[in-house]
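Contributing new records

If you add data, match the layout below exactly. Sequence lines come first and carry their own label; structure lines follow with theirs. Keep one chain per record. Anything else will be rejected by the validation script.
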Amino acid sequence: MEVDILRAVLSEVDVLGLGENSVDRVLVVPHLPGSSKAPSKMRVGASIRSCGGQVATAMAACASLGLRAAYAGVVGTDDDGRLVRETLTALGVDVTHLSAVTNAVTRWATILVDAGNGERAVLWDRDDALAMPAETVAAIDVAAVRLVHVDDTDLPASLQLAAAARRAGRLVTTDIDAGRDVMALLQLATHPILSEHALTTLSGESDPERGLRALRRQCRGVLAVTLGAHGAMALDGDVLLTAPGIHVAAVDTTGAGDVFRAGFITALLGGRSLAETLRFANAAAALSCTRVGAMGGVPTLADTQALLLN
């Protein structure tokens, strides 16, 4: 009976994300430490507690963009863990597969945001007890979702879920930022999405186009890379597509890459062309930069479409 109920819930899901969540303390400062303008002591302009984490934020953004989204991850039984659960639930994300580890500390981050340009520096920590158990992954019915989105936070769990999704004929997207030993995950994905840093690390190429073409020798999926304010690039077979960034007055760039992936997923499941998908994802990411916080910055479908019309 429990399995039947679980499948009934997940049958209503467009996208299921497995990976990182976090509770962030966002500190807005005049300048980032280390810059030539930064003194040794600075007064904090604003302090905000906000939920984040790359996959949790992506699922929150998917829900805000109109998709039926679910999230699988692990938190502690502390106040931060409860906040993650409550925030995702309030945003319309299914948290059936969000589990809690007794006495563990939920992943946290202190994020310093430059008040002048929205750029940020992230300091974080994650309790080793928060690793996703294999049995939790095995309980997920991937055949009941249209697309699975994974990162490399708990690589064995992501590999397990991505492999199951591919066996079920489902789409798989990624959020690869660290550039570690992730080639097996990229090879499983139908649409591997990497940060520019990860692409450089994996390919050995500083130029994004050369980096994508180098990875093409090992990955058959539609390869994409986020390029920050410069937009995004993708390689479909041997065809290269570029989509310039959309200029906005940036307040906080935290979570922009996560929201890009949510926009990519939304447009992909909506049947848009790859060029349109990149443009839609850029618009969603740009809007997220106009608000403080990761989940606090997720845009709506209406706002994203309005920006594309401007």
